[in-house]
What does this fold into?
Amino acid sequence: MSIYPCLSQAELPVLGDPSRQDVTPSQEYQLGKNYYQTLKSSHLLLEDLMVNEYIQSLGQKLVSNSEQPNLQATFFIVNSSTINAFALPGAFIGVNSGLLLAAKNERELAGVLAHEISHVTQRHIARSMSDSSSSSATMFAALLAALLVGSQSPDAAAAIFYGGTAAAMQSQINFTRHNEYEADRIGVSVLRKANINPVGMADFFETLLSKAETDNALSQIEFLRTHPLSSTRVAEARHRLKPGNQKLRNDSLDFQLSRIRILVQSTQNKPVLLQRLQQDDNKPENLPSLYGQSLLLLDAEKTTEAIKILHSLIQKQQHPWFKLALARAYRLNKQYIKSNNILESLSSLYPNYLPVTLAYAESLNRQKKYSKAIQLLKRQIQNRADASAYKKLAQTYYANGQIASALEATSYQYEIDGYITYAAQQIENALKQSGLKASTRQRLESRKDYLTALFQKHNN
Ligand SMILES: [Zn+2]
It folds into this structure.
């Protein structure tokens, strides 16, 4: 299905003359959100629930230890092999999958995130948007163009996204050197408060600098173009570190498992990667490698081998991702009861953990246990409104013959993804269904009014 956010020129935030006007926080948020939604609908983002949950929770942990602990920030991963991370207006913080692969441990990734978060909390982005002499003006012009074209064609949006980044690269500096030093300094204190070893920031910057020198691959390291980095800055970042950091967190299994998931998904040659993992890592304690092998075996439908590895992994560590993979293996093996039992126990162990909820709801739907699935999904949504949970809820209602409810759920899905006109259309269709209860009709009518008002607000 190819529908895109209904962004008309009129719906774009009016930034005015950036040389004379300050950008308001609400304009910033709207601009960042529109851009994020365009990336999402153009399929430029990594669609991996588990890795997305991981990056969001790591990012949120850092934000809650920043100068703006209540900031609503959205963290996401761009499917791109180049090494980059960036903060959009409105606290939308993106990390390229290439950066996750280049980072050796969680403290390095956290170092980059803390740096980006600090650009947000210190209002560097807003200031550079308001400064017409800044090259950011060029970048934002490109962003706005991407938004306009993105509503018509995802390929064009992709082209402009990368084109826009290229323009930003040519201009070399988006943030001033002072901004960079400040983001380093504030970032280190955020990391320390979050109990993450801040040495990771300097480590990662150093890796980038040496990569740029030795590989002669500057084009692969966009981060260096948008964040001017020098060996002096790295040395200063190191110098600022106080002793005693060794006791702080250096790595996490979640990071290493996320990294291997990205590697498995992005590799061009899965059999070769499987061979490499099997040869490299014979040690039974190498959980990420074994997990990666099990995923590759599942992709190749070698379920028996995968199940064997997953059982040994679960004996060592009761990680929910190992159990989710085992449930998937049993399902592929048509052992539906075993698969469902794993998901049922996971769901009570991790209530409202989206990857588990969606997998369990799917399993319940397969058994036609629709009301249980609906109950589960509603609980998830109450905890956090999420487009994919609404999508699954709509599928469940359809399967159960509750068409008006399905249309209503889809309208929420579209609203979250920024398709306001499509959301309103779903409600119109729901109202046309026969046999609606008076209370349902009333609820749908008021939702229709709400969406109409929302659309008008965006068009004014
Ligand atoms: Zn920076």
